[in-house]
Amino acid sequence: MPCPRWTTAEQGRPLVLGVRAEDLSVEHRGDAVLPGEIYAYEPLGDRTIVDVKVGTETVKVKARPTVVGTPGETVGVSVDLDRAHLFDAHTGRALSAAGR
Questions:
Q1: How far, in Å, CA of 80 to CA of 41, rounded?
Q2: Residue of 30, 41, 57, 81 with fewest CB within 10 Å of its CB?
Q3: Mean pLDDT of 65-83
Q4: Does 15-95 carry CATH code 3.40.720.10?
Q5: 92 CA to centre of own chain
Q6: 44 three-state secondary structure
Q7: CA neighbor of 38 nearest in space, from 5, 71, 66
Q8: What pTM was estimated for this model as a whole?
């Protein structure tokens, strides 16, 4: 995944990505795309929550009410990197963003 705005990210360093459900998309928008599989699909009227298995983790994606999916379907989870946070996997410390 590209890390252009994090000045303290070192190549090959284990990192943890922190991102909110509204900053993820299954509608092909965002800076980076993670391959995943729909685990659950919850239409909630004004929005849809899509649980997607990405690697060994399950992430919740907040989507428009018109988004549809089927458990087992392969999707790409787009990440808005401008809204994401990176943390050192060993220390848990947040990495500095460029210009901060």
A1: 21
A2: 57
A3: 89
A4: no
A5: 18
A6: coil
A7: 71
A8: 0.74
The residues, ordered by sequence, that sit 6+ positions from 100 with a Cβ below 8 Å of its Cβ are: none
Residue 48 is predicted with a pLDDT of 93
Mean confidence (pLDDT) of the chain: 83
Burial status of residue 75 (CB atoms within 10 A of its CB: 0-12, 13-18, 19 or more): buried
The 10s digit of each residue's pLDDT in 8-57 is 556 677 888 888 988 898 877 656 888 999 999 999 999 999 999 999 99
Task: Indicate the length of the chain as a whole number.
Answer: 100
The tokens describing 54, both together, are 């990405």
Say if CB 5 and CB 98 are below 8 A apart: yes
Handedness of CA 18, 32, 50, 37 (dihedral sign): negative
Nearest to 38 by CA among 49, 46, 29: 49
